[in-house]
Write a structure and sequence with these properties.
The protein is mainly β. The protein is built from 1 helix and 16 strands. The strands form 2 sheets. The protein has a 10-stranded antiparallel β-barrel with strand order 2-5-6-10-11-12-13-14-15-16. The relative contact order is 0.20.
Length: 262
C-alpha cells in the first residue's frame, strides 16, 4: 500500500528509526510520570516463512509481469520479529515493532523479462530478492476487558523499507521504496481458562491505492504471571497497483512466540 512516500534522502533509515524510537521513549517517560498502573513487556516471535504468491511488474505500464513464486523458486527461511509494549491503566497500550522480511529466489524463465531499465533474456539464470522490512508504532485501546475476553482497537503508523531486485550475469537492477502507511490495529483474546487462550491479532487496511494485512491466529499458554507462549499461523498479504509499480504478495508464517512482562 502506498499512501505517503518519503522522497529523496530526506529520511534515511537511521533518521526515521530515530524518530519512532524517540517518540516511543518520550511516551514511556510521560506515562510513567502520570501513572503507576503500568506494565512493560517484550514479545519475541520466530518460525518459518514461505511465499504464497508474489507477482511483480516494474514499471507498471511497460514492465513484464513475473512471479517470484511461479517463475522463480523462493526460499523458505527462518524469520524473527521483535515488539516492545507498554500498557497503562489496564486498557491503553503503545508498542514498537521491528519486523524484517527478505526472501531470495532464483531460476530461469522461458520468456524475456523487462524489469526497470534492464532486459533479462529468456532461459538465463536470474537471482531475485524481495525485501519488505516493517517498522510500526501502535496505539490500541482495549474496549472490552472481561475475565474471559479482551478486545481492543487502535491505529498503527507503519514505515516500510522495501526493495525488489533482479540480477543475471552481472547485470543487476532494483527498485527501492520507503513509505508511510496508517493501518487499523486489532486484538482479540479469548481466555479459555487461567492457562489457555485463543488470540487473533493484527494490522489491516484496504483502500483504492492497495491493501495490507498482517494477521496472527494462535493458541496461547501462560507459563506464569510474567511469561506466556503461543503457537499459530500468521498471514502477511498486500500490495498496490500504482503508476510506477504493480506488486501483490502473500507470505505464510508458521509462528512461535513468547511474551515476557516486567
Amino acid at each position: 500500500m502506498k499512501f505517503f512516500k518519503l522522497q529523496g534522502n530526506k529520511y534515511t533509515k537511521p533518521t526515521y528509526m530515530k524518530i519512532i524510537i524517540n517518540s516511543f521513549l518520550t511516551f514511556l517517560f510521560l506515562s510513567f510520570a502520570s501513572t503507576i498502573k503500568a506494565q512493560p513487556s517484550l514479545d519475541i516471535e520466530t518460525g518459518l516463512v514461505a511465499t504464497g504468491y508474489n507477482d511483480v511488474r516494474i514499471p507498471a505500464d511497460k514492465g513484464t509481469l513475473f512471479s517470484f513464486k511461479d517463475d522463480l523458486k523462493p526460499e523458505t527461511k527462518i524469520f524473527y520479529r521483535l515488539r516492545a509494549s507498554y500498557t497503562f491503566n489496564l486498557r491503553h497500550t503503545f508498542s514498537l515493532l521491528y519486523a524484517p522480511l527478505e526472501i531470495k529466489s532464483e531460476g530461469s524463465v522461458p520468456k524475456d523479462i523487462r524489469f526497470q531499465d534492464e532486459l533479462f533474456p529468456a532461459n538465463t539464470k536470474i537471482y531475485g530478492t524481495y525485501k519488505f522490512n516493517s517498522y510500526r508504532l501502535t496505539y490500541r485501546y482495549d474496549m472490552v476487558t472481561k475475565p474471559t475476553l479482551v478486545f481492543g482497537l487502535g491505529l498503527t503508523a507503519k514505515i516500510r523499507d522495501a526493495r525488489i531486485s533482479l540480477s543475471s550475469e552481472g547485470h543487476p537492477d532494483e527498485k527501492t521504496n520507503v513509505g508511510f502507511v496508517p493501518i487499523i490495529n486489532f486484538r482479540l483474546l479469548w481466555k479459555i481458562d487461567d492457562k489457555f487462550g485463543l488470540l487473533l491479532d493484527g494490522d489491516a487496511l484496504a483502500a483504492k491505492q492497495g491493501r495490507a494485512e498482517d494477521v496472527l491466529i494462535a493458541a496461547t499458554y501462560n507459563l506464569s504471571d510474567k511469561i506466556g507462549i503461543r503457537a499459530g499461523y500468521r498471514i502477511l498479504e498486500g500490495g498496490s497497483d500504482g503508476d510506477k509499480v504493480y506488486g501483490f504478495a502473500l507470505f505464510n508464517y508458521a509462528s512461535l512466540g513468547t511474551t515476557i512482562s516486567f
